[in-house]
TrEMBL record:
The keyword Transit peptide does not apply. It comes from Clostridium segne. This is Probable multidrug resistance protein NorM. PANTHER family: FMN_FAD EXPORTER YEEO-RELATED, MULTIDRUG RESISTANCE PROTEIN NORM-RELATED. It is a multi-pass membrane protein. GO terms for molecular function: antiporter activity; xenobiotic transmembrane transporter activity. Keywords: Antiport, Cell membrane, Ion transport, Membrane, Transmembrane, Transmembrane helix, Transport. GO terms for cellular component: plasma membrane.
Length: 447
């Protein structure tokens, strides 16, 4: 198994870049598409059950984002370090990295389980008001957090497979997990035959079952082996050195969504709804971009470790190009068909009126977003987490939030310009830093 894992990565070194991307990206994109469908279907069924249940999902959503941030961020660290070890012909250490990642996933899950037992109700009370919503959120949150072992393990094991160039097993796992959730949602929420009506608890159990199903599939070849106890701190240090930027970047998403919602709430609930609808639809249009982000990390890490700097530059050039082409579809839909997009989810005249103005402006940010989102991945893949983190903090905190707030002082119609302005600022900054890094590496290689 070890030798196979090592040889599976050789095509990172020799195959043409477009062929690599076209080979490994579609499975990831398909899995993400199914995940996006699950998110919408999940909310659909819960919304049909009760308003308090839907509120519960909204209250617990930030916790789920943090779970994803820790699971995927740690997995990114495992992925990046394993790809480097394979490039350096050290498959044994790569397997020990996978085993360490498994142990970290279990430890992080345990912390969340303890949190859910002692801190869930105080957390919920900060965001929910009615007794029904509070109880629903506590029930949903405790089940999801205690049952998050599947999410943590799958997040790690998926990245282990991806570090070897195996994108198909994670795709199958995420597909099975999402379909399990979608099928179980209506059965467990509303009841069917001998299955009792569980309400919001049913939605939580469906989520947990889907995550566990995905984890079981990725466990084959993903568990790895534990290193000697004396070596464990070194592996943990390397994993979080490569993964901490991704963890913080994912967590920042929670922060800025909460702040933007608070600003928009000063205008109307409909304004908040428009932002929420944007993020639901954005998931679909950003799938190619997110898929490429996932796929280029092991390819870049492998080639950077072998000092193939020209190949790294080629990877980024092709990734930028493919992403821009894909994002044009989103630009066209948001700029020319905003009303049609909004009417899929809402018939409210106020929501449509606000969204009709907002969506074309936000759509203009999609092309510069390619550069502000792809460039941090380059720095993350080569082990420069500081630059990656800097660009992400600049995008989500330093640019978007202050500009959004300043423009909100003028009028709601102007707030949406914060999206293209911040994407352009961060995109330009990222490109400048990227070319400086590439030049430094070439100079180093020539020395």
């Amino acid at each position: 198994m070890k030798s196979k894992a090592g040889t599976d990565t050789e095509f990172f070194r020799t195959e043409k870049i477009p062929k690599i991307l076209l080979q490994i990206a579609p499975p990831v994109m398909l899995a993400q598409l199914i995940q996006a469908m699950y998110n919408i279907v999940d909310s659909f069924f819960v919304g049909k059950y009760s308003e308090s249940a839907l509120t519960a999902l909204s209250v617990i959503y930030p916790l789920q984002l943090i779970i994803i941030a820790l699971a995927v961020g740690t997995g990114v660290g495992v992925n990046t370090y394993m790809a480097r070890l394979y490039a350096q012909k050290m498959p044994g250490q790569a397997e020990e990295t996978a085993g360490t990642g498994t142990l970290l996933a279990l430890g992080t899950w345990f912390i969340f389980a303890i949190f859910s037992i002692f801190c869930m109700r105080p957390y919920v009370l900060t965001s929910a008001n009615t007794p029904e919503a509070i109880e629903s959120a506590v029930i949903y949150g405790q089940i999801v957090c205690i049952g998050s072992i599947g999410a943590f393990l799958e997040g790690n094991w998926t990245k282990v497979h991806q570090s070897r160039g195996n994108m198909h097993r994670p795709m199958v796992a995420q597909t099975v997990g999402a379909l399990t959730n979608i099928v179980l949602d209506p059965i467990l929420i509303f009841g069917l035959g001998p299955v009792p009506e569980l309400g919001v608890a049913g939605a939580a159990y469906a989520t947990v079952c889907g995550q566990v199903a995905a984890a079981v599939i990725t466990s084959f070849g993903g568990v790895g082996r534990l290193p000697e106890r004396t070596k464990m701190p070194l592996y943990i240090k390397q994993i979080y050195w490569f993964g901490y930027a991704s963890i913080i970047m994912q967590a920042l998403f929670t922060v800025y969504i909460v702040i933007l919602n608070a600003i928009l709430a000063g205008f109307s609930d409909s304004a908040v709804t428009v932002l929420g609808l944007y993020y639901k639809m954005q998931t679909f249009f950003f799938i190619p971009l997110m898929g490429l982000q996932t796929c280029i990390v092991p390819v870049l890490s492998f080639n950077y470790a072998t000092k193939s700097y020209a190949r790294c530059r080629e990877i980024m050039r092709d990734s930028y190009g493919f992403s821009c082409v894909f994002m044009l579809v989103g630009v066209i839909c948001f700029v020319f068909f905003p009303v049609q997009l909004l009417q899929v989810f809402s018939k409210s005249s106020e929501v449509i009126a606000i969204g009709k103005n907002a969506f074309p402006i936000i759509g203009a940010s999609f092309i510069p977003a390619v550069f502000s989102l792809m460039t941090p991945v380059f720095f993350q893949a080569i082990g420069n987490g500081k630059i990656s983190l800097f660009l992400s903090v600049m995008r989500q905190i330093c640019c978007l939030i202050p500009i959004f707030w300043l423009l909100s002082l003028i009028d709601l119609r102007f707030t949406w310009f914060a999206f293209p302005i911040s994407e352009v600022l961060v995109g330009v900054t990222g490109i400048v830093l990227y070319y400086k890094e590439i030049k430094r590496d070439f100079d180093k290689g020539a020395a």
